[in-house]
Amino acid sequence: MNIRKLETSKFPSLLKEIPIPPKELYIIGEFPPEDKIYLAVVGSRKFTTYGKEVCERIIYGLKGFNFVIVSGLALGIDSIAHRVAITNNLPTIAIPGSGLDEKVLHPYSHKKLADQIVEAGGCLISEFEPEMPAGLHTFPIRNRIIAGISHGVLVIEAAERSGTLITANFALEFNRDVFAVPGSIFNENSKGTNKLIKMGAAPIISAEDILDAYNIVHSGENLKINFPVSPLEQKILETLIEPINRDDLIRKLGLPATEINSTLSLMLLNGLIKESGGEIYRN
Q1: Number of helices and strands (H, E) in the chain?
Q2: Mean pLDDT of all residues belonging to the chain
Q3: Residues 100 and 219 in one domain
Q4: 219 and 236 inside one domain
Q5: Measured between alpha carbons, how far is 56 from 198 in angstroms, rounded to an integer?
Q6: What's the distance, CA 14 to chain centroid?
Q7: What is the pLDDT of residue 274?
Q8: Are 184 and 275 in contact (CB under 8 A)?
Q9: Backbone conformation region of residue 276, classed left if phi is above 0, alpha if psi is from -120 to 50, else beta
């Protein structure tokens, strides 16, 4: 792939606004038009089924609207965001924690994904010299670029201490919108996102929330997606003949609490169940 060094005058305008903008920027592919909304979607490398499905459903709901999906090409939620964007004809920008030369591109297992991003009309960018390998110090630097180039940052999943939260903190510092997906209080991967919401991040439970945040006119009916119910979701629905508290439900199902709590969070998000007064109901 052809790596080009951009002239400073051609840097995205948002990136030039941050306190310490990059001095150099390398690119493969082309920047999507700047009249689009650049939305960073970031999250845990060790994602849960809940995080994966939330990421897929929210980005699916942005299909056909004026968005560019920005992420870090990393394992986990980042790569899911890129792939779902491509599948739904949304341009996407990848910002790895390394240079862009294929010998050092991080992670190397995403070389094919990087090619697909460019082929779909997106790009890879980095402020590092093309042959610079990734290191512990390069990722926070990269996260600053993800936040700086974006109008808003959506955090899908994040532990209480994670690199994902570094991106969110940069977004706050740069006066960008910060969004977070709420999750189960029992799940380590939701501690960071729940904390962000407590600090003032806008909670996001659907693509509709993102569209509303940017005053984009839409029909809520167009965003409804009929996903199949998983076997565990079906088992939970069959168990909810009458309202039951969470602990009793877990005991009845006889499965690991972490697995059930993640599934319950997803079911709440999708409107299959509701929780009130300490009890869970079928919708």
Answers
A1: 11, 12
A2: 91
A3: yes
A4: no
A5: 24
A6: 20
A7: 86
A8: no
A9: beta
Please write the tens of the pLDDT for every residue from 57-67: 899 999 999 99
258 and 190 Cβ atoms separated by less than 8 Å: no
Of 65, 67, 69, residue with least CA distance to 55: 69
Residue pair 54/269 in contact (Cβ under 8 Å)? The answer is yes
Q: Please tell me whether residues 262 and 196 are part of one structural domain.
A: no
Q: Is the overall model pTM greater than 0.85, yes or no?
A: no
Structure tokens at 55: 């990421």
Quote the number of domains for the chain: 2
Q: Which pair of tokens denotes residue 105? A: 């591109």
Judge residue 193's burial from the number of C-beta atoms within 10 Å of its C-beta, 0-12 exposed, 13-18 middle, 19 or more buried. Answer: buried
Rounded Cα gap, residues 263 and 237, in angstroms? 11
The domain of 94 spans 4-223
- In terms of domains, do 213 and 276 share one? no
* 247 exposure class (CB count in 10 Å sphere: 0-12, 13-18, 19+): exposed
Number of Cβ within 10 Å of residue 163's Cβ equals 19
The residue to which tokens 């030369």 are assigned: 101
**Which 8-state DSSP code applies to residue 3?**
-
CA–CA dist 226, 270 (Å, integer): 10
Residues 214 and 250 placed together within one structural domain of the fold: no
* Joined tokens for residue 142: 């990269």
CATH code: domain of residue 239? 1.10.10.10
